[in-house]
Amino acid sequence: MAENKQQESLVPSPRLLHVVVFPWLAFGHMIPFMELSQQLAKRGHLVTFVSTPIEEHRQAAAPVDGLPEGAESTADVTPEKIELLKVAFDGLATPFTSFLAEACAGGDAGPDWIVVDFSHHWLPPIADQHKARSSIGSNICILIILVPCALFLIVPAAFVAFLGPRELNDAHPRTAPEDFTVPPPWIPAPSPLAYRLHEAQWIAHVAFRPNASGMARFWETTPRCSVIIYRCSREVDGPLCPLLEDLFAAKPVVPAGRRRLPAGLRVGWVPQVRVLAHAAVGAFMTHAGLSSLMENFLFGHPIVMLPLFVDQGLTARQWRSQSDSEEGAGMNNIAV
């Protein structure tokens, strides 16, 4: 009995982590990052969530011409000025460096991981300049390691596969809108992953611009992170899940106050899950955002998808295609 107790004492106990979570400044990104933070906290891990308000950082960041005063997220700017918000976001590198230095100075309480978004190309080099203590077992060994970064992509697997890594885009450049109206050559045929021409205008002229665009940031951030986390469902994405593991083979890829309003006017978030749960709902018309589609899965309403931009067109056609396959059995009643 005494020997068994001694052996049990040598078994390493699970180590709780300190995870820094830092999303891009858009509610569609902040909400999934917050949900991830809540799941980590439920398991006992310490989570530091970094986001707006950024008023205290304004003196550290140079002002950006054309960006409205007080803009702290994409909700505060028009679509054509989102690029300016990305430039201003880069100015947070200096205050984040100070934050991370102070956090790492806390010894065992320092961060073990930093979860970043597509836009944080400047953050992994900052993390490489700092070190964290990592214990193995029960006080058996203490390692001093660099603080690793994990890239959390909130977009669906189909969109990540369509974008592809930088080296494949360099080998098969896409510069005109028409280039995005067919599946890229690295996706096995047949595939529904292609934009319609009016959708391709945005992806060609905004996302793939060689400046502060999303793709430039995504391609710079990806190789600097130790792990890539994406949202994938075998029933919906089918062969795209193992394809992503091949496309990013060098990395482990893991499939996971109120304003007073005038009288008579009420503005706020629609309680979508409560609405979908109502017996009067006969169908769900949606922009094909992945979170909305997953919420509808709880209730099984017929889906009518009206995609608008970014990943939504690809998501809609991928879901429609999989609804006709054996893997997507039960995903009927889907229209695009």
Note the quaternary state here: single chain
| Average of the residue pLDDT scores | 77
* Principal-axis shape: globular
Number of strands: 11
Any guess at the CATH architecture of the domain at 15-147? Answer: 3-Layer(aba) Sandwich
Strand content of the residues, in percent? 5-15%
CATH topology name of the domain at 15-147 = Rossmann fold
Q: Pick out the low-confidence regions.
A: 5-12, 54-60, 135-144, 257-261
CATH domain class name of the domain at 15-147: Alpha Beta
How are strands sequenced across the largest beta sheet?
2-1-3-6-7-8
Query: How far apart are the termini?
Result: 66 Å
InterPro entries: UDP-glycosyltransf_plant, UDP_glucos_trans
GO molecular function, one term: UDP-glucosyltransferase activity
Organism: Eragrostis curvula (weeping love grass)
Pfam families: UDPGT
How do the helices and strands line up, and which of them pair or pack?
Layout (H helix, E strand, L loop, with lengths): L1 H9 L7 E4 L5 H16 L3 E4 L32 H9 L2 H12 L8 E4 L6 H5 L3 E6 L4 E6 L2 E8 H7 L2 H6 L25 H11 L6 H8 L5 E5 L2 H4 L2 H8 L5 E2 L17 H5 L7 E3 L3 H8 L5 E3 L6 H11 L11 E2 L1
Parallel strand pairs: 1-2, 1-3, 3-6, 6-7, 7-8, 9-10, 10-11
Antiparallel strand pairs: 4-5
Which terms summarize this structure?
alpha/beta, Rossmann fold, six-stranded parallel beta sheet
Describe this structure as you would to a colleague.
The protein is α/β, with parallel strands linked by helices. Among the domains are: 15-147, 3-Layer(aba) Sandwich (Rossmann fold), CATH 3.40.50.2000; 272-335, Rossmann fold, CATH 3.40.50. It has helices at residues 2-10, 27-42, 82-90, 93-104, 123-127, 157-163, 166-171, 197-207, 214-221, 234-237, 240-247, 272-276, 290-297, 312-322, and strands spanning 18-21, 46-49, 113-116, 131-136, 141-146, 149-156, 227-231, 253-254, 284-286, 303-305, 334-335. It has a six-stranded parallel beta sheet. Strands 9-10-11 form a three-stranded parallel beta sheet, covered by helices on one side. Strands 4-5 form a two-stranded antiparallel ribbon. Helix 6 packs across helix 11. The longest helix is centred in the N-terminal third of the chain and has 16 residues, at 27-42. It starts with a helix and ends with a strand.
